[in-house]
Amino acid sequence: MVARVAAELQYAEYEEQERMEKMGRRAEYGMPSRRATSAKRAMKRTSASRRAGHLFSVKAGGKHQRRLRKFH
């Protein structure tokens, strides 16, 4: 019984390792999660659009700017 629990724990650790490998060494360098990076990208996109000024109304935030892109 104890051996089985130990084996399961080891396997869980192994799975964790595999996940880290798949993430592309993100965790090693202390890089943020995928959601955080996409949020940063979104911030960059809005600031770029704000710089363009005439492309978007500044009041519309986030998702709405993408919708406005068609009309402006």
Written account of the structure:
This protein has one domain. The chain is 64% helix and 0% strand. The protein contains three helices and no strands.
At a glance:
With 72 residues, this protein is mostly helical. The chain contains three helices and no strands.
What descriptors fit this protein?
single chain, 72 residues, mainly alpha, 3 helices, rod-shaped
Distance from first to last alpha carbon: 67 Å
What pattern of helices and strands is seen along the backbone? HHH
Going by helix content, strand content and strand pairing, the class is mainly alpha
Radius of gyration: 22 Å
Overall outline: rod-shaped
Q: What is the number of helices?
A: 3
As residue ranges, the low-confidence spans are none
Number of strands: 0
* Main sheet specs: none
What percent of the residues sit in helical stretches (DSSP H or I)?
55-70%
Mean pLDDT value = 62
Domains, number: 1
Strand content: under 5%
Quaternary structure classification: single chain
